[in-house]
Write a structure and sequence with these properties.
The complex is a heterotrimer of chains A (about 625), B (about 300) and C (about 300). With about 625 residues, chain A is of the alpha+beta class. About 10% of the residues of chain A have low confidence. Chain B is mostly helical.
């Protein structure tokens, strides 16, 4: 007898928590359609979960209409529904159950580890299960994993009418296998009886330990429920995860003029099938490119209402063949394919581009024939795919076919898998993982690494796109020194080294050069009134190699203009230092301090009076007092 | 669309200066053409040579009224040059080519290579005449001939950009005419103030009011200079904390006025006042005036510079 | 400008993300970090700064003790443009009460391109009208938050101004290259507007070697020459007073020079200040030039 499934609606804890709307808004402004995001995210998750030695993960998409007894099982499962007439989850469920032709989408993987770890999020070490279903926005935890287990989940919810997912997973805990089944919805935050709810809901088995809480159904119970709901079966040993989306939005897969309630014609089903197939091919072909041993990283199947639309081997698709070749070569990491920045000298990745005469291979036109202009896979190629080491396509750098020489080109830029470099590119990706844009989150070195790659890609694109036949000839002179200009610019401009506030440059040869002791730029911490006086505080840190003693001089000055300073304010008064703290200890106030036993990271706090309605800064200098003098 | 102004590249401009330095005879006008003259490669019409001809003729006429091609006598040299510059400013304000209401002109006129061209190719003789008192051993100072804040003609045009009271005003060029050399540099050398014409004008007006007020009270020009130099410095400091661009006219005027008044008060405290008896007061005024005239274009500044 | 303290509490700079500016064309946003590739003076420049990452203004002001100031607060964008600060101009491109700003929509301004030249600096400002917060009386126009961002029109700050021309055609001495440093009246003026390196196209083979990136020694000498020439001009001009700690405008000659001076200093075993470098340049120019070569070597790499 299967247990009764209950609803848990998440109340707002006193400390606040992200609402469902917040969860759904984590994607920023992606350039992809909802289905593309869903496919990329779910495939990334499957890939990350698939790091089992010797096992090829299998990723499957299945679209189907539930049989009547399965619908009954769904009704029983969702007997408890969220309150509120306007709740989108409730409305979505109502709609699903009243629809004449309900549709389900199952995304499943096998040969992967499944969602393990604790099923609740209250412990220290949240595992995959808790991260996927309870928490949001955890940092990337799989080394060089394709995505974060946190972000990206919103694409799943947005694809489902009731904004709801049922998760059925088989995972291993040591030697023991455990089956788990839990449903989660992201609706709208609401108030009920004086309590505020986040809009997140779970369906599961009532917890015996925590009130108003549900746990996933486990083992035998989970198997029974999963079977009744129509999940594809899973034998013992076939660890992995299946996601069921109710009432998936099919608008970007097919033009549904008659509205979602209408029955899906055969024609429409075919369209949907081709669309799914080409989306998978276009965004995930690296996973299908066979390596030198003849095995592809993943196996991918698509079942669209009983018809097989599994993507073909990219080597057999003329448009994608160039990608496959280039990818195989880039995996070898040959020196001549390397793309590096000059200063600092770092490898950004490997770039391989293959060319062929336009028309040398007849393109595969099936997608164009069925989908027309909207087809993702073009007939003529002028693209470079940008890949992270996880070999997922971030985006394409698309140019033009070279009209002058009639050359098509396809290529791959695969960023380096050295952790620091890979992190730089990963951090440049917005939540939708659909671009590389150096952002504020990167250090200067990381920005240089990413920019080097982007600039080189742009250059290749321009070079290979060739000139339009009608461009004026006079532009060559400038072009001829363009690379020199860029190199000198990268070396001499914006190097950002030096200066009292900058980070010390790392030594060229480890151990042979000392980093000079210096002070960071003073950071203003705020102005206040104390004992009738207006005071402001600055914080600065000592950096570099420690010295037995350092002489630090601190002088406040008025900001007299954008680039100039003065000693006195307009009213004639001067700012005065009233207190200095070094590493938390007060010291005597003086223009010139001697700090003993200084080490990198020593924090200095300075209080200064504010003499007038002006802005104040600190001029500082510091030098290490050499050993002989100290003795 | 703005005119495209003729320009010459910097190294060629410097070559011309070398030529002028090598031989006095080279310092003459030899046509509007120059092998390296170029125009910005964008949409718009090139300024026709006809316009340059008109400009040259008009400016030479103005210079003649101040003695060109002869040097004005030493005793009245500064006033003569000041008159010359004020008149050129008025003429620039009226010149169609520099009409700032035409889109793009205000931006295009900041191109330094255009001012280099105007100075070294169109009006080299006038420019050399203007700076005779500055030339040491007859060597021309590059900053007067190359485009930049101190270029012979660009500096005059900047006064028009910043201090033109507008066509609606009964005395449109009053500020440009009455401000002295040091006044201009005090205001225009500070981009935080001069980049906004509204702010520059307000300060200039206040400066003149202060001058009238303090001259009436017997203050010497040197003392007045101390007041406005300090006031302008103070305004720059306040301007870091309160953004002047965002104050309305009334608020800004209050801030400027207050700054000047405070400086007057402070200086009054520090400096012995001219006494009421005629003899002393008059004498100190005369001495002040005399010193001012003898010192050249301005009271000797701490850094010896002038704009 | 260096970080400064104000005579009243301000918004917490370290907690707020720097406004990031984008060029908007239709729905597309391109980052302005690397300048504008193809700027057209006849088409208006539409710029956008997203504000979604900012906390709600109410919360922000409350947390900073500035709650009473919120209703008096304004968000403004001032635009500064020109080849140098002294020969440039400044205008207000945007100004709205802060409460009227929709953070989700962000900030969009439309600039008349014909008013812009060479370089643009966008000053993002939150100010208040005169008002009182506990303990402080704020004057009209007081700054609560400021951020400046510069970008070049027509290209990128990171591209060095290099131009191949025929020296014989111009009747210049037939060297390999000529480092042309223009008048520097103000260290904040743009590097692109001040400096231009002419390559003698008559020596096509030399240009080829330089451009290829394979001749490290030649490139090192080239860079060293640029650095030493520019520094010479700046150090010899007493009115300029370059300072290593000073913050100059983005893309300015001062910023480049101060970076180079700091870089020259890094090689020394003892602490060299600007005055000492100047002295060395004047009295022992050979040593100074060798120092510039060593610095360039590190950039070019071994």
């Amino acid at each position: 007898m299967t247990p009764v499934i209950r609803l848990q609606s998440e109340p707002n804890p006193p400390s606040g928590s992200i609402t469902a709307e917040g969860l759904l808004n984590t994607m920023g402004r992606p350039k992809l359609t909802a289905t593309e995001m869903l496919i990329r995210e779910s495939l990334q998750n499957s890939w990350d979960a698939g790091q089992i030695a010797g096992v090829q993960p299998h990723y499957a998409i299945r679209l189907f209409m539930p049989a009547p007894e399965q619908m009954e099982a769904f009704k029983r499962f969702f007997a408890d529904r969220p309150r509120g007439e306007s709740c989108p989850v409730r409305r979505g469920l109502d709609h699903f159950f009243s629809s004449g032709s309900p549709v389900l989408m199952e995304i499943s993987d096998r040969g992967t580890v499944g969602l393990g770890g604790p099923t609740r999020a209250d412990g220290d070490d949240a595992g995959n299960f808790a991260n996927f279903l309870r928490n949001i926005g955890k940092p990337r935890d799989v080394e060089q994993g394709g995505g974060t287990y946190g972000f990206g989940k919103s694409s799943f919810y947005l694809m489902s009418g009731p904004q709801l997912l049922i998760v059925d997973t088989l995972t291993k805990d040591g030697e023991r296998e455990e089956r788990r089944l839990l449903a989660h919805a992201a609706g709208e935050s609401f108030n009920h009886e004086g309590r505020h709810y986040t809009g997140r809901h779970w369906w599961g088995v009532t917890s015996t330990e925590i009130p108003d809480f549900v746990d996933p159904a486990l083992d035998g119970d989970a198997v029974a429920i999963a079977h009744s709901l129509g999940f594809s079966s899973r034998e013992p040993g076939a660890t992995g995860t299946s996601l069921m989306l109710l009432d998936p939005r099919l608008e970007d897969l097919a033009d549904l003029q008659a509205g979602p309630a209408a029955a899906l014609t055969d024609e429409l089903r075919r369209r949907i099938g081709f669309r799914l197939q080409e989306m998978l091919l276009w965004w995930c072909w690296p996973k299908l490119v066979r390596d030198v041993d003849g095995v592809a990283p993943m196996r991918i199947t698509i079942d669209c209402f009983g018809q097989d639309f599994s993507p073909p081997d990219p080597d057999s698709v003329p448009q994608l063949f160039g990608f496959a070749e280039s990818l195989r070569q880039s995996r070898q990491k040959r020196d001549e394919d390397a793309v590096s920045s000059m200063s600092p000298k770092k490898l950004s990745g490997h770039l391989v581009i293959s060319e062929r005469k336009l028309g040398a291979l007849v393109p595969d036109q099936r997608w164009r024939r069925v989908l027309g202009e909207e087809a993702l896979i073009p007939e003529a190629m002028a693209h470079v795919a940008l890949l992270r080491p996880a070999e997922l396509v971030v985006r394409y750098e698309a140019g033009r076919v070279n009209e002058v020489d009639d050359i098509e080109w396809t290529g791959v830029f695969r960023c380096s898998d050295e952790p620091e470099i890979e992190a730089a590119f990963a951090l440049s990706e917005p939540p939708a993982h659909d671009d590389w844009e150096p952002s504020q989150r990167l250090t200067r070195t990381q920005k240089v690494i990413v920019n080097t790659a982007l600039k080189r890609l742009k250059l290749e694109k321009q070079k290979r796109s060739g000139r339009n036949r009608h461009e004026p000839a006079g532009s060559t002179e400038g072009d001829s020194v363009a690379t020199l200009s860029r190199r000198i610019g990268a070396a001499l401009i914006g190097s950002g080294r030096g200066g009292a506030g900058a980070e010390p440059r790392p030594p060229r040869k480890t151990g042979t050069r000392k980093r000079r002791l210096r002070l960071s730029k003073p950071i203003p911490c705020g102005t206040r009134i104390e004992d009738g006086r207006m005071l402001t505080t600055f914080e600065l840190t000592l950096r570099g190699d420690s010295a037995p003693q350092a002489r630090v001089s601190i002088r406040p000055s008025i900001q007299a203009d954008v680039s100039s300073t003065e000693e006195s304010a307009p009213n004639g008064l001067k700012p005065v230092v009233t207190a200095i703290e070094v590493a938390g200890e007060a010291v005597n106030v003086s223009d010139s301090l001697v700090i003993s036993g200084s080490a990198a990271g020593t924090l200095i706090r300075v209080d200064v009076t504010m003499p007038d309605y002006v802005a104040i800064g600190l001029d500082t200098s510091c030098e290490a007092i050499p050993e002989e003098v100290v003795a | 669309m703005s005119w495209l102004f003729p320009q010459i590249p910097r190294p060629d401009a410097e070559q011309l200066i070398d030529l002028f330095n090598a031989d006095f005879a080279n310092r003459c006008f030899s046509g509007f053409e120059h092998p390296q003259r170029f125009y910005q490669a964008s949409g718009g019409d090139r300024l026709p040579d006809e316009e340059l001809k008109v400009a040259r003729a008009a400016i030479i006429d103005i210079a003649k009224q101040s003695g060109f091609p002869d040097q004005p006598p030493t005793s009245t040299r500064n006033q003569a040059y000041a008159r010359f510059e004020a008149a050129v400013a008025e003429w620039f304000a009226g010149w169609a080519a520099l009409d700032v209401d035409r889109p793009g002109v205000a931006a295009e006129t900041t191109r330094r290579d255009w001012w280099s061209y105007l100075t070294l190719v169109v009006l080299p003789d006038v420019a050399c005449w203007r700076w005779v008192s500055e030339t040491q051993g007859n060597l021309l100072k590059h900053e007067r001939f190359l485009g930049g804040g101190r270029n012979t003609f660009q500096r005059i045009h900047r006064r028009v950009l910043c201090l033109d009271r507008g066509t609606d005003h009964p005395d449109r060029f009053g500020l440009i005419r009455e401000l002295k050399e040091d006044d201009f540099s005090a205001i225009l050398e500070r981009p935080s103030l001069s980049s906004s014409p509204r702010i520059a004008r307000m300060i200039a007006e206040e400066l003149l009011l202060m001058r009238a007020r303090l001259s009436e009270a017997g203050w010497g020009l040197g003392q007045q200079q101390s007041v406005y130099r300090q006031a302008i410095k103070d305004l720059c400091a306040y301007g870091i904390v309160t953004v002047f661009d965002l104050l309305d006219d009334a608020q800004l005027q209050d801030v400027v006025r207050e700054s000047f008044l405070q400086c007057e008060i402070r200086l009054k405290r520090d400096v012995p006042q001219p006494c009421n008896s005629d003899g002393h007061g008059k004498r100190s005024r005369l001495i002040g005036a005399f010193r001012y005239l003898l010192s050249g274009s301005s009271e000797p500044a701490a850094d010896g510079s002038s704009t | 400008m260096r970080p400064v303290a104000y005579p009243y509490p301000v918004l917490p700079v370290s907690d707020l993300p720097d406004p990031e500016w984008f060029l908007a064309s239709g729905d597309d946003l391109t980052s302005l970090r690397d300048g504008i590739d193809a700027w057209d003076a006849e088409v208006p420049l539409v710029l956008h700064a997203p504000l979604e990452a900012w906390p709600a203004f109410d919360d922000l002001f409350q947390a900073s003790g500035l709650h009473e100031a919120l209703q008096h607060a304004t968000l403004a964008v001032l635009v500064e443009t020109g080849p140098s600060p002294i020969t440039g101009h400044r205008f207000t491109a945007f100004r709205e009460p802060l409460r009227a700003i929709d953070r989700e929509a962000g900030l969009t301004i439309k600039l008349d391109s014909s008013q812009l030249i060479e370089k643009v600096t966008l000053h993002f400002l939150i100010t208040v009208d005169s008002c009182m917060v506990p303990g402080f009386e704020l004057r009209s126009g007081s700054v609560l938050f400021r951020h400046a961002f510069s970008f070049p029109l027509e290209g990128s700050f990171a591209n060095f101004p290099v131009r191949p021309v025929s020296f014989t055609e111009r009747k210049w001495s037939p060297g390999f290259w000529q480092v042309d440093v223009g008048l520097i009246s103000d260290l904040d003026q743009s590097l692109l507007g001040t400096l231009l390196v002419y390559l003698n196209s008559d020596h096509a083979d030399v240009i080829e070697r330089l451009n290829s990136g394979n001749d490290r020694a030649l490139e090192c000498l080239f860079q060293a020459d640029i650095v030493s020439t520019v520094l010479q001009v700046i150090l010899m001009d007493e009115s300029l007073e370059p300072d290593i700690g000073q913050t100059y405008a983005d893309g300015s000659i001062g910023q480049a020079a101060s970076d180079w001076l700091a870089g020259l200093r890094d090689d020394a075993t003892s602490l060299l200040n600007v005055a000492m470098l100047r002295e060395e340049m004047v009295s022992r120019p050979g040593v100074f030039h060798a120092r510039c070569q060593a610095f360039a070597l590190m950039e070019v790499g071994t």
